[in-house]
Amino acid sequence: MPYKLKDRSVLITGGSRGLGAVIARHFASQGSNIAINYLHSAGAAEKLAVEIRGMGVQACVIQADCGKIADCEKCVEETIKVFGCLDIIIGNAGWTKFSDFGDLNALSEEDWDKCWAVNVKGNLALLRKALPAFNSNPEGGCFIMTSSIAGTSTAGSSMAYSVTKCAQLHLMKCLAQTQGQKIRVNAVLPGLLLTEWGKKYPGEQIAALKERSVLKMETDLDDCADAFVMIAKNTSMTGQKIAVDAGLMVSAMSN
């Protein structure tokens, strides 16, 4: 039976801009209350919260660095404090440093560590903190990670990003396998998204990626956000990765 989203409490990390903000609007349109995590974009987060409240649901903002364990725990705690419960987490916060993929000296040790902390350890910390709340819910809890097709290929904004997104996908499967029948864990793998982040690619690279995709386009943000809603509603899915990439990586989808 589909999981109804009305009156659910949804925490979205990295939720103030880009894909995170679009996901927030889509869940709010389903009647969910939204906790918007942000790192630096306080103005954007507050503006989005006002917009979401105008849709007839509750919204709050939480400043936190999802590369820090204590801040991830704070996100969970604050969401429960405001809404009284936590039903769904969208682990959307991510980090990269655009660099020459093949240059092994392009990223410092600190860059690699930060990429690992945000893209992998942050997601682990979120679910670990949310476990009691999820297990106490009559219908359990749902955790969806924003991954990337970079995690299933040897390409992306940086080698560290590709490697940590691959590790994130294995973490997703391990959590789904081990955390019991009340907790669903899945991932969405977007292709090229023309957010502030995606627009950092050179114009010629953006054009080449569009041309390489089967559908000859970038990944539509609303289409991508719809995948998160679909997964949240689907009570028969866990441990799965869903690519929404306009066919950019269709040949690798079986991997």
Automatic annotation (TrEMBL):
Spell out the Gene3D superfamilies in the cross-references. Answer: NAD(P)-binding Rossmann-like Domain
Question: Into which family does the record put it?
Answer: Belongs to the short-chain dehydrogenases/reductases (SDR) family.
Q: Which SUPFAM superfamilies does the protein's record reference? A: NAD(P)-binding Rossmann-fold domains (SSF51735)
Q: Keywords on this record?
A: NADP, Oxidoreductase
Coiled coil ranges? none
- Transmembrane spans: none
For molecular function, the Gene Ontology terms on record are: oxidoreductase activity
| Entry annotated with the keyword 4Fe-4S | no
In terms of domain of life, where is this protein from? Eukaryota
* Name of this protein: NAD(P)-binding protein
**Among its keywords, does the record have Electron transport?**
no
- Pfam families under this entry? adh_short_C2
